[in-house]
Amino acid sequence: MQDNATEVTAAGIARLAGVGRAAVSNWRRRHADFPRPVGGTEASPSFALIEVEAWLRKQGKLAEVPLRERVWQQLAGHPQGPVTALVHAGCVLLLIHERPTVWLDVSAGSDEHLAAMLPDALRQVLIPRFGAMHSSSVHTGLTAGGSSSVNAPASVNTGLPAHSQPPAQAVGAVNTTPAPATPQTPVIHTPTGPQLLLSAPLLRGAAELAAELGARQAFEFLLGRHLDANPRQYTLTPADLARLMADLAGPARTVLDPACGTGALLRAVDAHPGQELYAQDSAPDLAALTALRLALGARAAVRGAVGDTLRGDAYPELRADAVLCHPPFNERNWGHDELAYDPRWEYGFPARTESELAWVQHALARLAEGGTAVLLMPPAVASRRSGRRIRADLLRRGALRAVIALPVGAAPPYNIPLHVWVLRRPGRTPAAPEVLLADTGRFAGEARGGPDWHAVGDAVLDAWHAFARTGRLEERPGLARSVPVIELLDDDVDIAPARHLPPPAVADGAEQLTAVRERLRATLRLTDDLTPPPADPVAPARWPLTTVGELARGGALVLRTGGNGGHARVPVLTDHDVLAGTAPSGTLPESDEEAVLTEPGDIVVPVLGGGSVARVIDDVTQGAALGRSLVLLRPDPTALDPWFLAGFLRGTANNRQASSYASTATRLDVRRLQLPRLPLDEQRRYGARFRALDEFERALRQASRLGEQLVRGMYDGLTDGTVAPD
């Protein structure tokens, strides 16, 4: 009965069957027995998952729904909403993780038995982990603003005196005692029997997934899929950036994230027994999911809270060894009028437009003496006139230790180079304080592929550790230097790194330009040699045709789709890399789904954008993870020549007939792409010509890049005086 409550969209059906959405639309038109919609809208209907599964099996289009996909569809179509479903699943996965035998006893019966017994079983885990639970009937579900009101324990004693208890509700430490409930939204609440009855199929599926992957990995998979499915609802901190910020903070026994979001920063901390992780967020759904995520994944004690940190700090007496924070940017309604006399404004009262400087001072106020805070900041905070007095005081007193400019594309918003500020709670002001300024813009990836995080991490951490040891850093042209504070204390107090770093050493000087010119000449000669010979006119060929879908069903090739990061940190081949012919440059969030890794001879095809492009993987690009919006074809070399396959897939007419069009994008159904049925020897003849064309295309791209570099270098050299006009 409960399975019928789970609904799935056309996109979900396409994922179940491994086809494009156009195929699902065709099935609805052509098959009178296709399941009728049970919800959604006319433009985007939803269907009962159990009816869809039965129809797909009847049609021979589905042997068995993959476990991960089945559980995800149960979560996504949950009648109480995916956030509530995630919280229910997270509670059960925590029970499985910590008391697996209790779960086995509870689940050995009907769904009704499970729903009746599970609340008491969950309390055996949730109370020791998060403190005493307060049962309530608070509505759970997405609000009009898109956040979730998730039931949670009303509050938990933080170990502070009674008069110091915060207005927000904190949950977390083992052996805590409950404080009186307050009207604010609690963090996590033991679900009731009726709520769990609706979730019973999902919970059993999540338990199966935990048996296959582990409880932590199962929750990470479900949470990751939810975040991917709702990209506009959450501002995420990329895993590589979170790891860099945690490394800058260094080892710490107590770590606070006062704007925890989905918990990425605290998850990046190298947690260990005896450590304490403190989290707070104003969004109830994020606070609940983060608490469960950290409890499942960290060996440290977890303390979570829900509430507006600036207006209602959950940890007013905390003095942490480290604070990590990705605060909301450009927030006008941060409490300026109510908080004018707050003791946290030790370095000056922030202007209404300087919410980020309020977060900076909150972080400093929660640090122990000598502790380190690392915050992600928009670049405007480094130079806005309204914040210059606070910046000046942070510098004078030695609190601000480093400002690091990240490459464009490091984190949302991806079109600007964000900054990382490193601050320390000063014990005493150094006699001649200096501040580290670094700019890693040179490590930006091409197009939207993301930065070279390995290079960014090496450069930043090397500079920071050298600076932290001595308080000074020798100039690293174009990358980093330590600047005496006195040089920054002018009328503007502008601490943007790009304005204080020396230019790169002669990298674009006359000698370098000469080398670029020679490389361009050699490339142009190669381009001339590779120019295809004149084509003789011939009558159009009439070959018997087949499709990629038919070849896949016949075993002549394997078809895979990308988008999973896996556990290993490997380069990611993006659709932009394929279109531009560049090396793998992207990143994907860590996932418990296995990444698709490329092998020599694979063909990679972008499915969005309307371009006729297919790239053959060589020894240089092998081993990369397949990114989103890409399909990989792995041909059987005894049946198909890869260059023959890639060449025919690039035909303009071929792509046009296999594409579908929406209001904002063109999508390619790779299975519908056609190619002729030819003997292998004939395929290789065509493959050799297609390979020669590919080499010619690469040479043209290289010539274009070198030409742009030469022109840019000449302009820069002429304008800065390093190149003479004659």
Automatic annotation (TrEMBL):
This is Restriction endonuclease subunit M. Keywords: DNA-binding, Endonuclease, Hydrolase, Nuclease, Restriction system. The keyword Transferase does not apply. It comes from Streptomyces griseochromogenes. Residues 218-441 form the DNA methylase adenine-specific domain. One of its GO terms (molecular function) is endonuclease activity. Coiled coil: none annotated. Pfam families: N6_Mtase. CDD domains: AdoMet_MTases. The keyword Lyase does not apply. It comes from the Bacteria. One of its GO terms (biological process) is DNA restriction-modification system. Signal peptide: none annotated.
